[in-house]
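Sorry to interrupt, but I need a hand with the structure work. Can you supply me with one protein entry, sequence and fold together? No commentary is needed, just the two lines. Leave the record below and I will have a look.
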Amino acid sequence: MCIDAEKTKPLTFDDRFELLGQPLLGNLQGGDSLKLPIDHYLDWTHYNLPANSEHNDLLRLSRLAFMKAFQIYIGRQTTNGDQWELLESLTQLVSQINPDQMGSHALVWVCFIGAADSTDPVHRRFFTDRMNNIYTKTKFQNIAAGMQSLPGIWSQQGSGRWTEDLIRLAPTLVI
């Protein structure tokens, strides 16, 4: 288990909530939430499971998907450059997780970040389809609100970094 160096305690649900929520508040808060290496915040994806457990692969892929989504967020936060390769890599990671598999619903934030940064219609469709699949199962309204905010985010692409004004563009916690 990772220990938060500043608080000297294991990361809690509140820490995870802050980690995934603060980037949705904008660049300043998003940057503040990522002071330590990304893997530090993903202690909840580390479990002592039997080596042959089907869940090991899901956890490994989920951890990698979160790390890739954070890379995409930070990349967009700091530049307006093309991130197609990162988005393609994220698509490939998420594609390895069966959307009906137990625990796959945890990728809502990952898919939202992927969808928000996508300019390629194929990537957009992939991530929104995944979010819609999760919404269909959970009926969590924050997912529907996140999907409804995507056209507004996409309309900002090219005129600035969508991470700068995310609180206005997506005024909901998409996790």
